[in-house]
Amino acid sequence: MTSPALPVSDWRALDDDARARLLRRPARLEESDTRERVRGIVRRVRESGDRALFEMTESFDRVLLKSLAVTVTERDAAADSLDGAVRKALDAAIATVTAFHAAQRTPPLAMETAPGVVCERIELPIDRVGLYVPAGDAPLPSTAIMLAAPARIAGCRRRVLCTPPRADGRPDPAVLYVARVCEIDEIFRIGGAQAIAALAYGTATVPRVDKIFGPGNTWVMAAKQQVAADPDGAVCDLPAGPSEVLVIADDSAPPAFVAADLLAQAEHSSEAQVILVSDSLRLIQRVNDELPRQVAARRRSSVITAALALGRAILVPDLATAVEVSNCYAPEHLIIATARPRDWLAQVRAAGSVFLGHWTPEVLGDYCSGTNHVLPTHGYARSCSGLSLNDFTRRMTVQQATAEGLAGLGPVAQQLALLEGLDAHAYAVSVRLPVTPEAAA
Questions:
Q1: Containing domain of residue 66, as a range?
Q2: Any idea what the Cα angle at residue 43 is, between residues 41 and 48, rounded to 5°?
Q3: What CA–CA distance (Å, rounded) separates 289 from 305?
Q4: Does residue 392 belong to any structural domain of this protein?
Q5: Is 358 a catalytic residue?
Q6: Which listed residue (332, 362, 373, 378) is catalytic?
Q7: With a threshold of 0.85, does the pTM exceed it?
Q8: 290 annotated active-site
């Protein structure tokens, strides 16, 4: 087997086209075959409902289900089966994520924009939310925390969780424990694009929701985009597909730390993206020397090796260029492993979440620092933010004018309405202006 290492490219030796190719993600979601197969899955769920979910779980997950719903009794029994140390760790992670997201609450806004005219903004929870927790080769109770905790804080009335079953037909018990702590009673053992379709359109068993949250593979990402584009579907949180990390490191970075951070992302899936950018060829070489030793000791070494084959190391002339390379790539996770990491933070323009210094592994954000690990991938960090409490709420504006307020500001509305040729708009103001509040009563 070829020893795992990142191929090295010298940024200075590349022209603009070569640089763009170097930072391009592998084309998967764009493949028409993926889109068409996902479209077929969505159509099948809409037409056949629960029957399609049973059949596809058997076909895709190799699990013959007796029921889609997880009962509260089943949830609690699975949660109680966990080791005490595991429950304690999950509780600690739930506590930090809850604390950080609870602090994101915004108070109601009310102000007088003109004499006698008051405008307000009120925040309301989204009524029905779907929380998708992927599993694949490894369960992700951490994702359950990142979705369930803010949904509870926001006060979403109906919170529906979908997660793929294990070979025995049961969801991961740690995921079910998180669901219990975060007070989620509606849980379904379905995954993949079919789970997204079920949440978007509803079936006899799975309730339809207003917005869907959660990461997934390219199939899940494609399904989310398709149902979000359908007026009869459901809004989705953000494009969150295969995981990715970009590490900016200088000679002060311990090679073992950098290699470990790269492998931590690579073990998510063979589609994960890992990139090292450094102004030190020596550091890059030392990291490449470290990788085989660490890969050999990892349980998911085959997955890691496949992901590393898609990775790369980029040599840049200085750290300012390294930050620009990162901005061009717009990574989901950005680690700045330099001697003075905070000095570069102000120059970062596109990243889902940033990790500063040698003692802040990205894994902290995955699990328990308090920030949310559902983040934009595939370059969407240029225009999208990571998940926050705001995503589980909607904002409604209110305005109220007194008769005096309308008399003062109404002529402005009249003039602008006439400027746009909308005389009915103008009349809705003028019909009120000659009338006093006493006469109107």
A1: 32-238
A2: 95
A3: 14
A4: no
A5: no
A6: 332
A7: yes
A8: no
